[in-house]
């Protein structure tokens, strides 16, 4: 009964899709070509990148461990809308704007740079969120003041000035930040709650750059240095006065040598899926060797697809920003829990003998409680699980209108997808340096608006 309830609750979300489909049909019968063009989406500013971050370790280390630096793999997404943005390790929403002044809600990743062998014990990196007041002095130079906190009320008050420049194929973003920290913050992050530290202010300077190689391919790099406040420098747990961090990687972005197109063929969509857990890994599933979960744990998901572009490197690809809400149903071994997903997904369409598509998505997934299928794997491997993990979606679908020769159903797709959470083979500190995750085989209906 509970599983059917989830499908019933999803029905109201399906109704607008049906209405859109009907209105599109009516529009196609009555509107001119120019009017149809006006209904199309514009190309968005977006990106997807893979970056390696190397940071020096400021902490005094115990016997047998003498790591001077730590490395982590950081997948990044980028998107710029009218109000909402994702910028690598930061996301935000503009709450108010008047001329050059704006007030924003911000959330960014907060790295905890300890030796890799201790990361899973201490936990993954956390996040800092709060309110930011920003002023744009001219086309390039900005400054902001913000108050942010982690989930346990360890506060920072930050002041930053920076500038953004584009010179040919290069992009530069230097900045300087004054990081004001409370005593609770210093005690938690630098004293590890074993040594009480006073409040203080760090100074962080550096910058990042991007180079346009060709078409949608870019190289990324960055370097920053932080000078710790006196309380941290003289503590027993920290034996460095400075910390340095470096970034290097590559990414796929809009081709900034061209103007974003005002009209693309990609349409928004709504996808409704239901799936079943499996202890099999991704390789086994792709090889057709799926094992059924003995407790029959299930999920229901709803994803929205926001069009970004319809090509990459000149190849016809429908690319979307796709947020999702996932319900993991209760069973005899787990309680009802919710998962939030945000990802970038690309579809490649093959038109033979009917239209069908291959899809792949990359993003982030957060659950408010660890599911049984994931918890049991972490226990077998001796890891502390992480609520935040990397998200991958692999899909294959077919166009219903083509399949049954009904043009009015051209906006409906029936498909299979693998719902996958994992931690990138112990290489990501933000996921607690674990290996493994969870997989669900799902079937879905997807409706283009």
Kindly provide the radius of gyration, computed on alpha-carbon positions and rounded to a whole number of angstroms. 24 Å
Residue windows where pLDDT falls under 50 for at least 5 positions:
1-38
Cα end-to-end separation? 30 Å
The overall number of domains is 2
Structural class: alpha+beta
CATH topology title of the largest domain: Porin
Give the SSE string: HHEEEEEHEEEEEHEEHEEHEEEEHEHEE
Global morphology: globular
* Strand elements, count: 21
Mean pLDDT: 89
- In CATH's first tier, which class of the largest domain applies? Mainly Beta
Quickly give the CATH architecture of the largest domain. Beta Barrel
How much helical structure, as a percent, in the residues?
Answer: 10-25%
Strand order of the largest sheet: 1-2-3-4-5-6-7-8-10-11-12-13
Number of helices: 8
* Fraction in beta strands: over 45%
Biggest β-sheet description: 12 strands, antiparallel, barrel
